[in-house]
Amino acid sequence: MEEANTWINAEIKSVIDVNIGDSLTIKRLHKMNFNDFPYDVEEIITLVHPLTKEEVKDNIIKLTRKIC
After folding, report:
1. Beta strand pairing status for 56-57 and 37-46?
2. What does the pLDDT read at residue 42?
3. Which residues contact 1 (CB under 8 A, 6 or more apart)?
4. Are 24 and 51 in contact (CB under 8 A)?
5. How far is CA 11 from CA 3, 32, 36, 40, 57, in A?
6. Who's near 28: CB < 8 A, 6+ residues apart?
7. What's the rounded Cα separation, in Å, for the pair 62 and 68?
């Protein structure tokens, strides 16, 4: 599997308690068709560094950072 370096810009409302220093992995499922055959492609985004105090407030995570 190939890893890509890119940027993420997101605002996420968490249903669980989120704390400064927590690690974050985001999983998204994409449903796609190739040659009329359906595929489910899972995208996994893992933050390089733990969440900071600037990114977490009232269980809302605001991200503008580089991911790996």
Report:
1. unpaired
2. 94
3. none
4. yes
5. 23, 25, 34, 25, 11
6. 42, 43, 45
7. 17
Question: Could you identify the residue written with the tokens 């893992």?
Answer: 46
CA torsion sign for 58, 12, 47, 55 is negative
User: Encoding tokens for residue 8?
Assistant: 């993420």
- Evaluate whether 67 touches 8 at the Cβ level (below 8 Å): yes
pTM for the complete prediction?
A: 0.67
Percent of the chain with pLDDT over 70: 88
Q: List pLDDT tens digits, range 9-42.
A: 889 998 899 999 999 898 999 999 989 999 999 9
